[in-house]
Description:
The complex is a heterodimer.
Chain A: E1 3-5, E2 14-17, E3 20-30, E4 38-45, E5 51-57, E6 61-63, E7 67-77, E8 82-86, E9 91-95, H1 97-100, E10 112-118, E11 121-126, E12 130-138, E13 151-156, E14 161-165, E15 173-177, E16 182-187
Chain B: H1 14-33, E1 37-38, E2 44-45, E3 58-61, E4 64-68, H2 73-83, E5 87-94, E6 106-115, H3 119-134, E7 143-147, H4 148-156, H5 165-176, H6 185-197, E8 205-212, E9 221-223, E10 228-237, E11 240-247, H7 252-268, H8 278-287, E12 291-297, H9 298-306
Parallel strand pairs in B: 1-5, 7-8
Antiparallel strand pairs in B: 2-4, 3-4, 5-6, 6-12, 8-10, 9-10, 10-11, 11-12
Amino acid sequence: MTNYSTNEFKSGLKVILDGDPCSIIENEFVKPGKGQAFSRVKLKNLKTLKTLERTFKSGESIEAADVVDMDMQYLYNDGDFWYFMDLSTFEQYQASRQAVADSVKWLSEQDMCLVTLYNGDPLLVVPPNHVELQIVETDPGVRGDTAQGGNKPAKLTTGAIVKVPLFVDQGETIKVDTRTSEYLGRVR
Amino acid sequence: MTEDKKNWEPSASIENLKTRSRVLSKIRQFFSERFVLEVDVPNISQNTVSDPNLDSFSLRHNGSRLYLQTSPEYYLKRLLADTREDFFYLGKAFRSGEVGPLHNPEFTILEWYRCGWDEFSLMDEVFDLIKFISNEYDHSIKSQKFTYLNYFQKIMNINPHTATLALLQEICVKRFGSQWNDASRTCCLDLLFSQIIQPKLPTGIVFIYDFPECQSGLSEIREFPEYNVSRRFELFYNSIELGNGYFELTSGEEQRSRFLSDNIQRKIQFKHSIAVDENLLSALDHGLPNCSGIAIGFDRLLMCLIGEKTISSVISFPWES
């Protein structure tokens, strides 16, 4: 079991707090001139994605979390699990519904995702920043209407619903930013 | 320090360095007008502080261990005992491991002593000094004094001197997590004061005095019917701690016993013990006049006067680590 002392704390370090893996966002050194030194730490719980703040005595140490981020290819899902493959070892990993969470609406087969492993199991799945997906349902396109603003909802093959300009049609493939759900353009 | 700066460039702007130079000369002018003598004391000594919360840099020379001084206090007290004159030191001090936006392990300290003065007269002089050096930056600067008890009761609704350790631990655990359930009394108080009370201090200059007895350091004790307090005070500027002062302890015997209990604390924290500074104790035995003294972090004071947020913006080059 590895431990990290407060003087090794830095942003990005993965530790275990109250049994959950957390990532350190920020570490501030606090010390009264004549008193005990503290580390005021801002962390993200990697399970709940909630941000929390903790204050530790300087020199105190906490357990390191076995957390690694890996690029993996999304293969398929069987309704219960989503399967990913490390292309360098061809090893497959199954991610729970909780791990894929909201990312599920962007996952299309063969896309490369960032998978966070905790003790060897997928904890978090982050889809590519940009994905190309086909529209399966939207109001008919308004021809020639390329200059005016305005938009309409469109449903994509993965189930995600994004706002698209009025001129975009059903059956077209579009590029979307998965971080903001923003429409980026048509793909020919 | 701005991110886009190249490594070789200084971390302070030339404007800040000019202000720094001007403020340094104004401090010297202030004390010279008041007949307080500037003195240079060694930065390297065989002895160092035993305070469990201070770590000294050490170095080896001809087989013996020497330390960079965390403050000029012991040398200045030896001068006071010998001469009964007022002295100030304005120069470097070193504290290992203290790195952050408000800390630089090598820093400039302003420390002075006034013979025959109590801590309240010294607080007034500290404010006079700050007005004198800040008149071109902040005309509206105000000063207030509160007891430690006063602010603790106001914000936390407890008496820090009489509250049980169990109650203090319970509050710390509730606010900051289970790792505080075995913290010492002084550790709980430091945590609550620095994290909860200090950010709520009024703006401007604030003096907090009559610290808990367990945090007396090198100060005399003031006795009340139900509890004792330490005749220690701290200086804050817009909630940032700038300095620490004492109505100084003069008993060599009492000082020796505090040094010994420091070393017990160090042992508990797995820190090596520090030999008692016999030269200081001999000076106290010879007779330290009744006096008050204060040490101020000059870089932080300057940072506050200019309105900067980090200490590195007022020192020429930052700590390399």
